[in-house]
Amino acid sequence: MNLRFGVFITMNPGYAGRTELPDNLNALFRPISMMIPDYGLIAQIYLLADGFSAAGDLSKKMVKLYSLSSEQLSKQDHYDFGMRAVKSVLVMAGKLRRKYPDQPEDQLLIRAMRDSNVPKFLEHDLPLFEGIITDLFPTTETPTINNSLLESAIGKMLSDEKLQFVDGIRKKIIQLLETMTVRHGNMLVGSTGTGKTTCARILAKSL
After folding, report:
1. Which end of the chain is more exposed for a tag (fewer CB within 10 A), N or C?
2. Concatenated DSSP letters for the chain?
C-alpha cells in the first residue's frame, strides 16, 4: 500500500443536476465539512496577479455586487452568482487588463462584470443590475465599445437573409460573441420564435 496516496471526493448535492453519493461508496469514506470560501480574498489574489493595483477595493465591490444581485434579482434556473461566475469575471477582467493597460481599472472591472452577466439576465432584471453597479461605482463612467466593423457585417448578413436590423437582435448577437469569449459551453435559452438560431447563424456569418 502506498501511504502517500489518498482519494478525496468533493460533493455538492444541493447544486442543480447533482446526485448523492451511493451508500456503499459513502461507507468507505470519512465525511469532512467544508466552509464557504472567502470570495473577496480569492478575487483580490486573482486581480493582483493580473496587475490590478486597486485589487483590495475592487474585489470588495465585486463580491458585494454578486451578493446584492443574488438577493435582489429574480430567481432563475440559469442565474449563477457563485464561485464559478466570479471566476469567469476575473478571467475576463485579466484579459481586458492586458489588452487595455492604460484604461482605468474600475472601468475594466465594470466592463467584465457587465459582459459576463448582462447577456443572461431577463429584461426586468437589467435595470436592477445596472442600479447596483451605479451604487457601487457612482463616479465611474463606462466607455462605449466600438463594434462598428462587426455591426456593419451583422447588418449585411441580416439584409441578405431578408431580416430587419433591429437594436434587440444586434445587442443579442454581440452579447453572444462576448459570452463565447469567456465560456467554453454556451446555451441560447428562450421561447420558440425569439431568434435564438438566427443569433447564432448571423454571428457565424458575420465573423
Report:
1. N
2. --TT--------TTSTT--PPPHHHHTTS-----PPP-HHHHHHHHHHHTT-TTHHHHHHHHHHHHHHHHHHS---TT---SHHHHHHHHHHHHHHHHH-TTS-HHHHHHHHHHHHHGGGS-GGGHHHHHHHHHHHSTTPPPPPP--HHHHHHHHHHHHHTT----HHHHHHHHHHHHHHHH-SS------TTSSHHHHHHHHHHH-
Say which CATH number the domain at 121 has: 1.10.8.710
Q: How many domains does the chain have?
A: 2
Domain boundary among 76, 103, 136: 136
pLDDT along the chain (207 residues), means of 10: 88 72 88 85 93 91 90 84 85 88 89 85 87 88 75 90 87 86 81 90 92
Q: Label residue 110 exposed, middle or buried (CB < 10 Å: 0-12, 13-18, 19+).
A: buried
Residue 14, domain member (yes or no): no
Residue 161 lies in a domain: yes
Q: Are residues 117 and 44 part of one domain? A: yes
* Dist CA 48 CA 56 (whole Å): 9
Which cell is 65 given?
Answer: 455586487
